[in-house]
Write a structure and sequence with these properties.
1 helix, 2 strands, about 25% helix
Length: about 60
């Protein structure tokens, strides 16, 4: 089964694992599935808060 993949450098969608125009690796454009039992959510929130503080947005 083929999935739609995204090339972040070219910003194009395709079905191949590697971009034909820039030869970079493609990624799945969908976010991770939500789980209420997420054990790493607090770490992600802390990292996001640190990034926002570094930019001066918090």
């Amino acid at each position: 089964m083929n999935h739609i993949l995204f090339c972040p450098s070219c910003r194009t969608y395709m079905l191949k694992e590697q971009c034909a125009s820039c030869s970079s690796k493609t990624v799945v454009p969908k976010p991770a599935r939500y789980s209420p039992d997420d054990h790493y959510a607090s770490y992600r929130r802390k990292a996001k808060e640190e990034r926002l503080r570094a930019k001066g947005w918090l």
